[in-house]
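pasting for ref
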Amino acid sequence: MKHPDNKHNGKAIKGRLPWLIALVILSLFLCSCSSQQGNTPTPQPPNMTHQPAITPGPQDTVTPEVSPVPTPKEESLEEKVEKLMNTLTLEEKIGQLFFIASRYDGTGSPQLSMDEDLELILKQYKPGGFIFFAENLQSIDQTVAFTEGLQAASKIPMFMGIDEEGGIVTRLNKAPQLHATVMPSPYDIGKTHQPVYAYEAAHAISEEIKSLGFNLNFAPVADIINNPQNKVIGKRAYASEPDLASRMVEQAVKGALDCGIVPVLKHFPGHGNTSQDSHTGAAVVERTLEQLKASEWLPFKAGMDAGAKMVMTAHVLTPGVTDNNLPATLSKPILDYLRKDLGFDGVIITDGLEMNAISAFFPEDEAVVLAIQAGVDMLLLPNDLPRAYTAILNAVHEGRLSEERIDESVKRILMLKYEWLIDTPRHDLDPEKTLGSEEHRALANKIRKESTP
């Protein structure tokens, strides 16, 4: 028996069929999602404390691997020097051996500034140092500009040197516009018997020259004035007694170093016992080796122990010690005593090669080679720089000097430069306030007063 609405119902079902299919697909999709969510732990809300927290055991703890950050290794002084040495040509190394000057320019006028000729010399020979004389000094601004100009033209900072001993040997006081302190002589300082004055005077002088751009002072004099007829040293020495001279030299070295100035002990093996002046001719030291060790060398040793890393040789003959008839500057046995007996490992520099004790007896191209062969590291004031430079270069090429011997000296020079010039920050001294300061003048007057009998 057929229902009267079957046909109608069939149409209705057919009309709803797409919706039914969609509903089935939606149901299947929801079931699938529910199944996936069932595999994921449901996070606990903050107020659900009925489930204990799960603490992972030691085996569940994972420590992340952290790569250690390497601490930068600071280069040693030796490593810095070695690195710089590797960048230098033989010619540049030889240039470091020379300590030059230029008193007058090409027109015959005092050399007061950098000019094209001087710049060309620095570019071509790259000398290790430059020494100022009175001819190079006029005013504060001029001197500062000159020292800065020299350094700016140098690949490696130069030793900027000056003779400022106090007393009769002064360069600054020759230029009134510098208004530098007139410091008493070393001998007057020695007469006070107070080494602290040697320290304070050296420190004051060092401040004044440093404010102008200098970094090296050819002082203190370590000679003992033990020959009344000696005119070349005289009051430039602190004393005639080895012990007093030693204590004064020690403190003078410390005063310079504490101010950042390189001191130079002079004149080894001792120039105080001569009656002749090596500036004008041959000078002879009539002392035995035992006498030198017991007397003349004590102030040098005291200065070295205090930190001095440069020693100047004297152009003196020492017939009681050597029989080679060579001045100490050219005498290997004498310089071996300095190295071995006194243990000096710093820079050995000659006195001026222009002095007659050398220039009147030895051709310069021979003298400079003999000096390096003897153990000298730096050659001061050659008369003819091109000739002297070429002589050293030719001696290496010809095998009379080895490049290893040149390297020995250059390493000593660069060690000293790194310690006091290259790794040292620029000073902040105002030369207008430092030169002839009230404090320095008061010190000078106090020393003069106490040294007067």
